[in-house]
Structures are given as structure tokens and as C-alpha cells.
Amino acid sequence: MDLQDFDDQVQEKTLESKRIFDGKVISLDLLTVRLPNGREATREVVKHPGAVAVLAVTEEGKIVFVRQYRKAIERVSLEIPAGKLEPGEDPFEAAQRELQEETGYRAQEWQHLHSFFTSPGFADEIMHVYVAKQLEKTQANPDDDEFLQVLEADAVQILLWLQQQAIIDAKTLVPLYWWLWQQRGV
């Protein structure tokens, strides 16, 4: 079967959409949909403006991380620099902004690595991941509600953190595994 044939067969038609929450970062819509078998079902969809994440690589081949407390998981998380898109903001410009604000680094070389949906079962958030190289240190300027620790780690330290499950954030794991695969000699 052709992939497109399957896609066409399983589309869900939205019959009704109701906004039940409208917050600062997310909104929640309650949808009534018609399933491929003709039945109706309810879907809860989190609407998110999208986000960026930056795998910043120093001249020494280290990755730049930030540690910060994440209320949703009630713990400190070790992550690559990241942030949400402002309305209408270009993802590449957001990546440049977030890297500088959170870490104080600016990069001369940029590569778009991948864009992916973080949780497509219930949210439309798309994450745009960039690789930044040729870093120049400037002054960090985190948001007023961000309390960050900036760290740099080489592949050996990163592998240890992965083994200890110290890195638990998907937007960090995806580019890190790609980067480690690129480093295959480690």
C-alpha cells in the first residue's frame, strides 16, 4: 500500500472545535472529530507556538548545556539552550536569540538539524533544532524568570550523564544522540 493511500484513509475530519483554555504559553482545544469508520470521537489538543533548541559546540568540541529547575517535573533538568517562539518569529532568529540570552554565546556557523513534533498525540508543538559552531562568548541575558547554570561537557562526560540518566529531556536527547553518532570514534 502506498503511504499516501493510508494517509487519505485515516484522516479525521473536525466537526467542532471549542477553546477551553487560553494561557500565556499554551491553549487547549476540545475537538469533535469524525473517525474513518464514521463514528465520532473527542480529541484534546494543546496548541503551542513552537520552539527552538540549540546544540552549541565549542572549539574544544564540548557541548553547551544549561541547568534549570522545571516545575512540571519538580526537578532540575540538564538541557541544551532552548525557548519558545514569539508570535511570527523566525525559528532561526529565535535560536540565535535563545543561545545568546541563556548562555552568552553567539555563533558564526549555523546548521538546521531537524524539526520534529514533541508529542503529536495531543500537542501541535514543533521543535526546530539547530547546531551552532564557531562560538564567541558575550554576556548572557536570561529572562527575569530564568535561573540558569551554564555548563560545557565533552563526549565522555555526556556519555556518563546518559548512562546515569541525568539527561531526561527529549529536545536534548535527540540532537545529542545525533552528535555522538557523528563522533563515532568515542
Automatic annotation (TrEMBL):
Which cofactors, if any, are listed as required? Mg(2+)
Source organism superkingdom: Bacteria
Instruction: Give UniProt keywords alphabetically.
Output: Hydrolase
State the signal peptide span. Answer: none
Q: Which PANTHER family match?
A: NUDIX HYDROLASE DOMAIN-CONTAINING PROTEIN (PTHR11839:SF18), UDP/ADP-SUGAR PYROPHOSPHATASE (PTHR11839)
Q: Which family does it belong to?
A: Belongs to the Nudix hydrolase family.
Protein name as catalogued = NUDIX hydrolase
Organism expressing this protein natively: Fodinisporobacter ferrooxydans
Where is the organism placed in the taxonomic lineage, from the top?
A: Bacteria, Bacillati, Bacillota, Bacilli, Bacillales
